[in-house]
Design goal:
The complex is a heterodimer.
Chain A (H helix, E strand, L loop, with lengths): L2 H14 L1 H37 L6 E6 L28 H5 L4 E16 L2 E10 L1 H7 L6 E4 L9 E4 L1 H4 L14 E8 L6 E13 L14 E4 L1 H8 L6 E6 L4 H14 L4 E5 H44 L1 H9 L4 H48 L15 H27 L3 H6 L2
Helix pairs in contact in A: 1-10, 2-8, 2-10, 2-11, 8-9, 8-11, 10-11
Chain B lengths: L2 E14 L2 E14 L3 E5 L6 H8 L7 E6 L2 E2 L5 H8 L2 E4 L11 H11 L4 H14 L15 H13 L5 E5 L7 H17 L4 E5 L2 H4 L4 E6 L2 E7 L1
Parallel strand pairs in B: 3-8, 3-9, 6-7, 7-8
Antiparallel strand pairs in B: 1-2, 1-4, 4-5, 9-10
Classes of the chains: A alpha+beta, B alpha/beta.
Chain lengths: 433, 227
C-alpha cells in the first residue's frame, strides 16, 4: 500500500469521529501550548535579564568583596566557597594591594549603604555609593557620565552625583531634584548606643545619563554617589563594601588568573566576581528553570498521550471487524500498524501545530499582564523599581522540539494499540460483532 | 485445466473452552480453473471452517491446503497475506467499510495491492458496470440495498483479478428476489468471464446453479453431485 493511501485511509478514520479526534487533539494542544508558553516566557525573561545586566556592563572588571558580603550570591564558581566566619574586613586601602597584582590596570573602593534621602519635603530610601567619582568614571566611562553638571567632584566638597531615576523617577520630566538642589542623606548608625540618625547634607553636582539595566557592580540609575572620603568620615569607617578592579584586558584567562591572584593576596578571605561569571551563573540557573518548567509541561503531554492510547484502544475494539476485512483483502500486519500509528501522528501533528500557536498567544498574554504590572509598580514605588518588560522568545528550536515531542508522545502511546490491531487474526476479527 | 485449490486430508480442531471440537475431519477436495463449486450443508457441518482454510484466513491442524500448489501452512504471515490478495472474498454480511462509498470500497482492495490511483479509478468504473451499479458508485453502504451492497462486494472481490472467488452464503442476507439477481450475476461471471467460484451455501436454489455440489456433514464431505 502506498504511503499516500495509508495517510488518506488514516485521515478518513479520524474524520469519521470528529468530536472524539478533536478532544484527543485538545489534550495534545494543551500539553504543547504549556511547553511552548513556559519555555518562550522563560527564554524571554532570560534574554531581558541578560540584556539588563549587560547594559553598561564592563567585561574587563572584577568585583572584590569580603566573603559573605553583598553581591556574592551571584558570584561564579570559586567565589564565596570557603567559610565566611572570619573577622576579615575589606579596607579602602586594600586597593593598593590589588593595584600591585599583574594585569590590574586600576581599582577603586566602594562604600555602599542603604539610607533615607530627603530633598525638599520628599523622603525616600536609596542606595548611597561612596566612591572616587573620577576613577569610577574612568572604569565605567560609557555609563558613568553626566547628563548635566560635573562629576569630577572635589573630594573635599559635600557634593552628590545622582542617577537619572533619582532625579526623574516618573520618567515624565517632573524632577525630584536637579543640579544644585540641596540633599539630605539620613543614615541610622546602628552601632551607636542608642542608635542614632546622622545627616549628611550635600548638593547635587551632576545628574547621570540614563543607563538602564540593573547595573550589577556598575553604575545604576537608582544610586546616589558621594565622594569616598566624605563617605568614609560620614559612615565612620575605613572598610569598604567592595573594590572594583579594572583589568588590562577581558580575556577569560586574564580574568581567571587575576581572580585567583586577588583571592590568594587576601588569603582566600575575599570573593572575586567577574561580570562574565555572573552571566554564566545566570545562564545555568535559567537552564535549570527551563528544564523544571518544561518538565511540568511535559507531564500534561504525558496525560494527553494516555488519552491517545485510551482512544486508540476503544477505536481498535470498534474497528476489529474492519481490521479483519483489511487483512482478508490482503493488508499486511505492518501496514495495519502503520494505519493506526499514522492516525496518531495526524493527531499529534495537528495538536502540535495548534499547540505552538496557542502557546505563543498564551505567552504574549502573560507577557502583557507582566508589562501592565511593571508599569504600575514603577509608577507607585517611584525610583525603587524598574518597569521590566518581557518579550516572549519562541526560537525555532523550541517550536520544533515541542512539535517533535508532541508527535513522539502520540506515536509512543499509539504503538501498543496499533501493535494489538496488527496482531488480530483475520478469522476472529471477521467474526467479531 | 489447472488445479487452483487442493485440500489433502484437511483437519481442523478448535478448542471450545476445554472441549476439542473437530470441525473438519479429513476433507479432500480439488478445484480447477473455471470451476463453480457449491459446498452445501447444514450449519455446524464445517462449511465455514473449510472456507476459511481455502481463503488462507486460517491454518489447518492437520493435512495440506494447497493454493496453486503452494502449501499455505509453510508460508509466513506476510506471504499468506499477499496470497490473499489473489483471492476474492464475498461475505454473507457484505463487510464493506461503512464510511467509504461504493467506489472507495472497490478501490480499497486495489490500493492495498498498491495500484496507482488512475488505474484504480478506471478499473473500478469497469467493475461497477459489470455488477450493474455504476450510477450508484458514490453512495455509501448505508444508502444501498442489501443486493446492491452485495454487488459492491462482488466488484471488490473481482478487483485484483483473483485466482478464484470465495463466497460465504452470498445470498444469505438478502431477499429472494434480489437473491435471484445475485445468483444470475454469479453464474454469468462463471460462464461468461470464466471466473472460478467456490461458494458455501445452504440455499438449495443457489447450489443448483453451480457445476458441482459437495455435500458436507459433520466435518466431512459425504456426497459430490455434478449438475
Amino acid at each position: 500500500m502506498k504511503a499516500q493511501d495509508i495517510l488518506s485511509y488514516s485521515f478518513s478514520a479520524i474524520k469519521l469521529r470528529k468530536l472524539r479526534a478533536g478532544l484527543t487533539t485538545l489534550g495534545v494542544v494543551i500539553g504543547i501550548a504549556a511547553i511552548v508558553a513556559l519555555l518562550s516566557i522563560t527564554q524571554g525573561l532570560q534574554s531581558t535579564i541578560t540584556k539588563q545586566l549587560t547594559t553598561g556592563f564592563a567585561t574587563d572588571t572584577l568585583i572584590v568583596s569580603s566573603q559573605g558580603g553583598g553581591g556574592s550570591f551571584l558570584a561564579g564558581p570559586g567565589g564565596g566557597a570557603s567559610a565566611a566566619s572570619s573577622d576579615f574586613r575589606l579596607l579602602i586601602s586594600d586597593t593598593q594591594i590589588i593595584n600591585g597584582i599583574g594585569n590590574v590596570s586600576t581599582s577603586v573602593a566602594v562604600i555602599q549603604k542603604g539610607c533615607y534621602v530627603k530633598c525638599g519635603d520628599k523622603l525616600w530610601t536609596a542606595t548611597i555609593i561612596g566612591v572616587d567619582c573620577a576613577e569610577y568614571a574612568d572604569i565605567y566611562s560609557s555609563t558613568f557620565a553626566a547628563e548635566s553638571g560635573d562629576i569630577s567632584l572635589n573630594p573635599d566638597n559635600e557634593t552628590i552625583v545622582v542617577g537619572k531615576r533619582v532625579s526623574d523617577p516618573w520618567e515624565n520630566g517632573t524632577l525630584l531634584c536637579n543640579v544644585n538642589d540641596t540633599f539630605e542623606i539620613i543614615w541610622t548608625n546602628a552601632t551607636a548606643r542608642p542608635p542614632e540618625n546622622e545627616t549628611y547634607t550635600g548638593y547635587v553636582a551632576a545628574v547621570l545619563n540614563e543607563i538602564g539595566g540593573f547595573g550589577i557592580g556598575g553604575p545604576s540609575d537608582y544610586n546616589i554617589y558621594i565622594p569616598i572620603s566624605q563617605a568614609q568620615s560620614f559612615f565612620g569607617t575605613t572598610e569598604c563594601s567592595s573594590i572594583i578592579v579594572k583589568l588590562k584586558n577581558d580575556d577569560e584567562a586574564t580574568i581567571d588568573s587575576t581572580s585567583e591572584a586577588i583571592r590568594n593576596a587576601f588569603d582566600k578571605q575575599v570573593s572575586v566576581m567577574s561580570a562574565t561569571a555572573v552571566l554564566n551563573t545566570l545562564s545555568s540557573v535559567f537552564s535549570i528553570v527551563e528544564l523544571f518548567l518544561g518538565g511540568i509541561a511535559a507531564i500534561s503531554l504525558l496525560v494527553a498521550g494516555i488519552g491517545i492510547m485510551n482512544i486508540m484502544i476503544v477505536s481498535l475494539m470498534e474497528r476489529t471487524r474492519e481490521i479483519g476485512i483489511l487483512k482478508a483483502l490482503g493488508m499486511r500486519s505492518q501496514t495495519v500498524l502503520l494505519v493506526f500509528v499514522c492516525e496518531s501522528v495526524i493527531i499529534g501533528l495537528m495538536g502540535g501545530v495548534i499547540g505552538i500557536g496557542s502557546g505563543w498567544v498564551l505567552a504574549e498574554i502573560v507577557a502583557l499582564v507582566f508589562r501592565g504590572g511593571g508599569v504600575i509598580q514603577a509608577g507607585s514605588r517611584a525610583a525603587t523599581t524598574s518597569g521590566m518588560t518581557i518579550t516572549p522568545l519562541l526560537t525555532p528550536t523550541v517550536a520544533l522540539l515541542a512539535l517533535g515531542f508532541g508527535i513522539g508522545v502520540s506515536v509512543v502511546f499509539a504503538l501498543y494499540p496499533a501493535w494489538r490491531a496488527s496482531k488480530l487474526k483475520p478469522v476472529e476479527a471477521l467474526r467479531y460483532e | 485445466m489447472a488445479t487452483i485449490v487442493e485440500a489433502v486430508n484437511l483437519k481442523k480442531t478448535y478448542m471450545l473452552g476445554k472441549v476439542p471440537v473437530n470441525a473438519l475431519r479429513g476433507v479432500n477436495l480439488k478445484v480447477e480453473s473455471g470451476d463453480f463449486l457449491a459446498i452445501f450443508g447444514p450449519s455446524g457441518s464445517g462449511k465455514s471452517t473449510l472456507l476459511n482454510l481455502i481463503g488462507a484466513l486460517d491454518k489447518p491442524t492437520e493435512g495440506k491446503m494447497l493454493i496453486e500448489g503452494v502449501d499455505v501452512s509453510t508460508l509466513n504471515d506476510n506471504q499468506v497475506t499477499d496470497l490473499r490478495r489473489g483471492i476474492g472474498f464475498v461475505f454473507q454480511f457484505f463487510n464493506l467499510i461503512p464510511r467509504f462509498t461504493a467506489r472507495q470500497n472497490v478501490e480499497l482492495s486495489m490500493a492495498i495491492a498498491g495500484l496507482s490511483k488512475a488505474d484504480r479509478r478506471k478499473r473500478t468504473g469497469e467493475l461497477l458496470e459489470t455488477v450493474g451499479l455504476k450510477e450508484r458508485m458514490n453512495h455509501k453502504p448505508a444508502e444501498l440495498s442489501g443486493g446492491e451492497q452485495q454487488r459492491v462486494a462482488i466488484a471488490r472481490a473481482l478487483a485484483n483479478n483473483p485466482k478464484f472467488l470465495l463466497m460465504d452464503e452470498p445470498t444469505g442476507n438478502i431477499d429472494s428476489k434480489t437473491a435471484s439477481e445475485i445468483i444470475g450475476l454469479i453464474k454469468e461471471l462463471n460462464e461468461e468471464k470464466g471466473v472460478t467460484i467456490i461458494m458455501v451455501t445452504h440455499d438449495q436454489r443457489l447450489a443448483s446453479q453451480s457445476k458441482r455440489i459437495m455435500q458436507m456433514y459433520d466435518g466431512q464431505i459425504v456426497q459430490e453431485v455434478l449438475n
